[in-house]
Amino acid sequence: MLRTWFLLTLAYGIGFCIAVPSVVIYVLISEGRIPKDFSAVFGVYLFFYILSLFAMWALSALSQESEFFYRIWSRLSFFKRALLSHGIMILISGVIVALITIKSFSDLFLAIGSLALFTSPVVLGLVIANWLMHATAGLSQFKRKVMVKERPPKTLDFAEYGKWVVVGQDYAIDTIQRVLAANTKLADRGDPRRNSILASFLFVGPTGVGKTETAKALASWLRQDGYDFIRIDANQFATEETVWTLLGSPKGYIGSETPGLLPAAISQNPKQVILIDEIEKADQRLYQAMLQLLDEGYVIERSTGYAYYLSRAIVIFTSNLENKRIAEIMETLSDPIEIDIAVRKILESAVIEFSPYRSFKITPEFLGRIDAVVPFRSLGFEDLVQIAYRELRRLGENVDIDFARALTQKYYPIAKEYGVRYFLKKITEDVLSQ
User: Which residues, if any, are the signal sequence (predicted)?
Assistant: First the structure.
C-alpha cells in the first residue's frame, strides 16, 4: 500500500505540473493574460488525488470479500488499477456535478468530459510513474544478475546466494557456509585433515522444505569453479545389481566391461557436488562405499580396482529419518550447539525397518565422518507465500504478492501435510485451469 501511495502521489504531482502550464497557455490565448492564482487547479487535483486513493483502497477491500473480483483485481498492474480508480472518480464526480447543475441530459456528458479533459495530465503522470516503477525494478534485477554473474568463485559468499534461492532455511545455509569456509582454508593450507574430500553434509528434517534445492543451489554456485553435479536417488540403488551399475561390476561379472556411473563421472571431473538423496533407502553396499569415500576420499571402480580420488569434492546426503522430531527441535531450540547435539542423538537412535531382512541405521562411524549434520526447519506461512509468488511469476502470471498469499491460505494445509512440491503442484493447477 505504501508503494501505491507513493506512485499515485508521483502521478498526480506530475499531472499537476503539466496542468499548470496548460492552464497558463489556455488563459493566455483565450483572455490575453497570464493567471497568477492556481489554487483552483491545485484544489481539483488534490480532490481527485484523495478520491483516487480512497477508490484504490475500496477496490482492494472489495477484492478481499469477493474471490471472483480478487482474481480480476490481483492480475491488474498498478497502472491499470490507478487508471480504473481515476476513471471511476471522474464518473462519480461528473454525475454529482451534473445533478447539481443539470439542465439537460447532455450536461452529464459535458461534466464528465470536462473533468476528464481537465485531469487528463494525470494519465500521463500515471504512465511516467508506471515506467519509473518498472525501470527501477529492472535496474535492481540487472544489478542482482550482474552481481551473481561477477561474484568471485569463492564458497565464502554462498550464504547470500543460497538465501536468495532457497526460502526460509537461513540456519541451514549459514551452517553450510561456515563449514565450507573453514574446510576451504584448511585445504588451501595443505592440512592433512582435508586430504579426503572438501566437505560432507547430512541434510535432515521434514520432507519438501528445500533439502534437495539447497544441494542444487550449492552446485549451481560452485559451477563457476568448475564443479559438476551428480544426483543419486538412493531408492534406485536398493539392490546389489543396481549398486554395481553405479560403482561398477566386479571383474568377471556381466557388465564389468562398462565402468560404473559414478567412477565414470569422476574420471571426467574430480570436482563434484555429489548428492545422495534419502540415504536410508540405499543398499548396504552403497552405504559402505560412501563411508570409504568420506574416510579416504576415493571411490574404487570394481571392474578395474582403480581408485578415483575426489580431494575437492563435496558430498551431501539427505535423510527423512525422524523428520518430525527434528522439526520439533528446530522449533524449540535456538542454540546451534544444542541443536547439533539433539539432532545427532535422535539420528543415532533411529532405525528404519524395510522388511524382516532389511533395515537401516545411521551408525556412529557415519556421523563421525560427516562434517556437519544440517537440520532443516518446517516452512512457515510467509515462507510459503514467497515460494508461491516466485512460482507464479516463473509461470508468467502477472500477479502480486496478495494473490500469492490468498492461494497459500487456500492450500496451506496441503503444504503442511505433503510438503512444498505438492503445494506448488496444486497452485499451478489452480492458476492454469482458469
Answer: none
